[in-house]
Write a sequence for this structure.
């Protein structure tokens, strides 16, 4: 099965292209205070290492907007300013070099929205129209209630205002905490327009609950060919969001790269989960389609027949397999290093 992606317009966010069948971009949101410039830079650089392609920072006041220019000097991926409704802060964020802004148009007065549109146009940067169920205009909620139709109406009205100003450099997101409402709104919006769509949930829940709910909603939309950027909204370290995004794309054949398969049981004498997680992090930038298998016991070694590389526990010893054949046995605490060394041989220069 091959997913047929929706045709959408091409948008450039800094030096990253999205839409028009470009790779689906993985993004996240910094958890640092934007005015803590050093901490924000350090977090973004760490996120870059594991494949974050676009990063957002919270910009709620002029001091945070002023921080953008300094942060931009030290990072290598596009920086998005997340400003909900303060037009003066939005304008300053644009002038300080944001590569894109994300706004909630339902919270802006029409005259202020026009100022934002014209400023974005003059700086030639895109705007993400962020439609969230929790912050829809009252007149729309009064008419439609908290439904997918309400999100759609809000999106159409916002897009119309941008188009009236001759501005189509936009990305749209329609998000709720409800999985089915999010899916329905995005499916219908995708049918009516060609604007790029950012897919995610809002307030998805705990790390575990958010992972499940986002995998269902974002996964369903991706299978339907919808989505030009994505985010897993998970509590805690944003590294988890980036890793989850890449792994979902790989699982659906929308990105090439290694797949790590781990099997755990009460037979296990090696730290299967720890090894698997470390490998996933180390391999996130690798694009070779490798299959790596981590098994709790040598009893299940038949799984290695189709593996490029793997390990199975035999007591406290790790039995290393390569291309289906046993190549060596190592002590438990040497398993991870051995696998990484073998991977370097399989994938020269980490490609």
């Amino acid at each position: 099965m091959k997913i047929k992606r929706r045709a959408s317009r091409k948008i450039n966010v800094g030096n990253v292209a999205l839409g028009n069948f470009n790779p689906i971009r993985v993004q996240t949101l910094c958890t640092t205070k934007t005015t803590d410039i050093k901490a924000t830079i350090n977090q973004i650089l760490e996120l870059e290492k594991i494949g974050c392609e676009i990063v957002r920072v919270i910009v709620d006041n002029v001091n945070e907007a002023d921080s953008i220019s300094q942060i931009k000097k030290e990072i290598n991926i596009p920086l998005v300013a997340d400003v909900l409704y303060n037009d003066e802060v939005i304008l300053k964020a644009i002038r300080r070099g944001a590569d894109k802004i994300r706004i909630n148009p339902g919270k802006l007065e029409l005259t202020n929205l026009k100022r934002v549109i014209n400023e974005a146009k003059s700086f030639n940067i895109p705007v993400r129209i962020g439609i969230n169920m929790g912050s829809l205009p009252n007149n729309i909620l009064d008419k439609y209630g908290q439904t997918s139709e309400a999100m759609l109406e809000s999106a159409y009205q916002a897009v119309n205002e941008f188009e009236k100003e001759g501005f189509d450099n936009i990305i749209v997101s329609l998000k709720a905490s409800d999985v089915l409402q999010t899916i329905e709104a995005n499916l219908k919006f995708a049918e009516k327009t060609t604007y790029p769509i950012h897919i995610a949930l809002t307030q998805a829940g705990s790390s575990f609950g958010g992972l499940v709910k986002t995998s269902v909603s974002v996964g369903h939309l991706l299978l339907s060919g919808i989505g030009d950027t994505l985010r897993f909204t998970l509590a805690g370290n944003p590294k988890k969001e980036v890793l989850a995004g890449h792994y979902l794309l790989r699982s659906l054949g929308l990105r090439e790269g290694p797949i790590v398969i781990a099997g755990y049981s009460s037979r296990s004498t090696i730290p299967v989960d720890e090894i698997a997680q470390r490998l996933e992090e180390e391999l996130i930038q690798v694009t070779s389609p490798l299959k790596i298998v981590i098994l709790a016991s040598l009893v299940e070694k038949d799984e290695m027949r189709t593996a490029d590389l793997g390990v199975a526990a035999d007591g406290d010893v790790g039995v290393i397999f390569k291309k289906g054949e046993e190549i060596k046995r190592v002590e438990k605490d040497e398993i991870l290093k051995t696998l990484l060394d073998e991977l370097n041989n399989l994938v020269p220069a980490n490609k």
About this structure: Residues 259-343 form a domain with the Sulfite Reductase Hemoprotein; domain 1 fold (CATH 3.30.413.10). The chain has eleven helices and 15 strands. The first strand starts at residue 11 and ends at 13.
